[in-house]
Amino acid sequence: MRALQVTTSDGTRLHVLDSGGAGPAVLLLHGLAGYAGEWAQVAERLAGACRVVAFDQRGHGSSTRRPADLSRTAHVDDVVAVADALGLERFTLVGQSMGAHTALLAAAAHPARVGRLVLIEGGVGGEGPEATADVIDWFRAWPIPFATVDDAVAHLGGGPAARVWTEGLEETDAGWVPRFDVDVLEAALRPVHERPRWEEWGQITAPTLLITGENGYVPAGELDEMRRRRPDVRHVQVPGAGHDVHLEAPERVAELVRGFVA
């Protein structure tokens, strides 16, 4: 995938990966503390059938690390800015976790652009300030810097998801460190948890697929209510997977997305 940079109207620089090609466009949004490259295994399996685009969200990876605006609106505007820069008039939008929340809002705000919507381990938000605090406390407890990659993998729980997360770290003279600042993560996550976005959920006209892990984080009651309000929505639960379904079961996620787009 070729790398390029898109600068938004507020001056934020976004690091973008684009597979190119003439197939239907699929735009991938990572979650909190993630990076565009974490979609590599999914993107490889979509290549040939789709044009795959992913980018580091503002405040993450190689994008502007400390942007002035971390609102939900700014994140939605970034989706449109990347699509405009690459000439994507209509596309399938896929998001995981906080990226799924952004995707939901983008689909509601831009129905002419988002032709199909895939939410991976994501819902309407509104879990409250305690949820933000729990997530941020976990990041603050990281023993930074990690002396070795193996130390980082072990701290993050081992397994394929931890390995991919570790690949997003940066090597410095002191050791391995994240390419984000925790206070920026907190400012970006807080608006997700402030209130549920049921109104926006009801406004979405794009065909929608929900993908969750058997051991994921989206409450069953919330999923039930999402489907009750939009009975046309399809839901697939991936056995054995947790919150990072796209990292733990990339083959299945790619298969589902490819079938949904076709």
Automatic annotation (TrEMBL):
One of its GO terms (cellular component) is membrane. Keywords: Hydrolase. InterPro entries: AB_hydrolase_1 (IPR000073), AB_hydrolase_fold (IPR029058), AB_hydrolase_sf (IPR050266). One of its GO terms (molecular function) is hydrolase activity. Gene3D superfamilies: alpha/beta hydrolase. The keyword ATP-binding does not apply. This is Pimeloyl-ACP methyl ester carboxylesterase. It comes from Micrococcus flavus.
